[in-house]
Design goal:
By secondary structure, the protein is an alpha+beta fold. Helices cover 25% and strands 31% of the residues. It has seven helices and nine strands. The chain has a five-stranded antiparallel sheet with strand order 5-8-7-6-9. A two-stranded antiparallel sheet has the order 1-2. A two-stranded antiparallel ribbon has the order 3-4.
Amino acid sequence: MLGVVLVLGSVVVGARTVQAAGATTGVWALATPVGAGTALTGAQLRVVQVSVDEATASAYLPADEPPAAGWVALRGLAAGELLPRSAVAGAGDLAERAVSLPLEGALPDGVRAGALADVWVAWPEATSAATSTAGAAAGRPSARQLPEQLADAVEVVAVRQRSAALAGAAGADVEVLVPSGVLPSVLQALAVEADLVLVPVPAAAGSRR
């Protein structure tokens, strides 16, 4: 009789353990990949059920908390990735701004959405002379006549290839996230139609983000 009781007791304990292990929590996950600075909408999100402890679950946005207007991704997020609280903020909290750079010719390998790249510029000669009169007066070539790095390891948000038949030359419009501190220089380069180049950051170096 005692043996029967012990067996029944073990069955009950086992059932409780399985039930506890099967308990899940609904959290938001990405239905599609998004780049940093992207405004998140319900169409880009889906609910998934995960079995995690309470402390881990608190790090992610629960499904019972509807997407707030103005949610913006602070970093690139992959499809299927759970949505961390730390990866979402209001648009006003972003320290970077999205800028579309018109690039001519074929893009370097590695320039794609989610990748990191340095932004370089070759200033028009008139702009160089105007911004380095001291060097010109001394008979030295202007420093701005050489290509200049404007931004380091910016994130590529989107790449839109241009048709050579329509635009007259092959190229692409590449949207990148530019830190606010270098935004004036990038906008100046666009205003004077300077030649802009994106140099991909090697994957190992870009892993610091």
